[in-house]
Amino acid sequence: MTAVETTIPAREQAVGRPLAIVLGLLTIFGPISMDLYLPVLPALTAELQSTTSVAQLTITACLLGLAIGQLVAGPLSDRLGRRMPLLIGVVAYTVTSVLCALSPTVETLIIARFVQGLAGAVGIVIAQAAGRDVYSGAKLIRYYGRLTVLGGLAAIIGPVIGGQLATVTDWRGVFLFLAAVGVAVLVASLVIFKETLPAKRRVTGGFSHTIQDFRRLLADPVFVGAVLITGFTYSAVFAYLSGATYILQGTYGLSPQGYSFAFGLNSLGFMVFGFMAGRLAERWSERGTLTVGLIMTAAGALGLLATALLHLPLSAIILSLFTMVSGVAVTSPPATSLALKDYPDIAGTASSLLGLARYAFGGIAAPLVGIGGATDAVPFGIVAAVSAAAAVLCLGLVSRRRGPGVIGRM
Prior knowledge:
Elements: H1 17-26, H2 29-35, H3 41-47, H4 52-55, H5 57-80, H6 83-101, H7 106-134, H8 137-165, H9 171-192, H10 207-218, H11 221-251, H12 256-283, H13 286-310, H14 314-340, H15 347-368, H16 378-393, H17 395-398
C-alpha cells in the first residue's frame, strides 16, 4: 500500500534553481556515457585488436546496464527514497569509469561498461522520478522537455569534448574524464539534492508488491504504448550512436573532430526540437505532438535507408540523421508525460520500465548496425527504418482511453 491515496495528485513542491539544475545534471549520465568516447571508438578497436562488431558490444553492454539498472533502482527509490540510492549510484559510476580506463582487453572493457551502465542508470531514473515528485500538470511536461534539451546538450558536448580529448589523450583518458564528471555530480548531489519523496509518500511492501505495481502498469495500454514508442524510437537513435562514427569517418572520410561537429549539429537539432516539443505538448496536445515526432522520425529513417542504398553524398545522410534525431526529440516529452503523469505513487517503478525499453531496445539495435562491416551503411538504414515503423504502429495504443481505476488502484 502507498502512504497516500493515489487518486490525490502528488503535492507540487517548491523547486529552487539549484535543485532543478542537479535534477537536470542527473540525466546526463546516459548521453555522456555513450557519446564522449564515440570519436575514439575506431582507435579503441585498433588498440585492443578487436573487430568492429565486438567493439560495438562496449556500447551494447553500457546500454543493457542502463536498462537493467533502472529496473532495479526505480522500485527501490519508491521504497527507500531518492537520495540514498542516488548517492550510491554516483559513487559506483565514478569507480567503474576508472575500471573502464584500466581495462587491458576488449572483453574486460565490455564487462566494466556493463557495470558502469548499471551505476549510471540510478541517476537517470531518479531524475525522471524526482521530477514527478515535485512537478505536475503543465510544469511536468515542461520539465520533461527540459530533460530532453539537456540530453541533447550533453550529446553535443560529449562528442565535441571527446574529439578534442582525442588530440591530447587516448581512449583511456576519455574514461578518466567520465570519472571526473562522476565526482562533480557526486559533490553537487551531496550539497544540493535533498530528499524529494517524503517517508509518508513511499511505497511499502516487498517483492510481491513490486510485481503488482509492474502488472498495474502493463495493464494500461496508454502506458505500454508510450513505453514501446520510446523504446523503438531510441533504438533508432542508438543505432545512430553505434554506427555513425564508423560510417561518417570510414565511408565519408571525416576526422574525429569533423565527426564530433557533425554529431553536434544533429544533437543541436535534438535539443532545439525537444524544447519545442515540451512547449507544443503543453499548449496543444500530447498525442498530437507525439504524432508529429513519429512522422519526422520515420521520414529521417527512410532517408537514411535511401542514402545507404543509393550511395548519396554526405549532405543527404546528415540531413536524414538530423530529421530522424530531431523527430525522436519531439516524441520524448509527450511520451514520457503520457507514461508517468497518472502514476505519482510509483513514479520510480514507472520510470524504470520507460528506461528499460529505451536502453534495452537500443542495446539490441546497436550491434546489428555492424553486421555488414564498418563502412556498410545498409544495415544502419534498415535498423533505423524498421524501428521507426514499429514506433508508428504503436501510436494506436496511446490513442486509447485509460481504463477505469488505472490511477486509483493501490
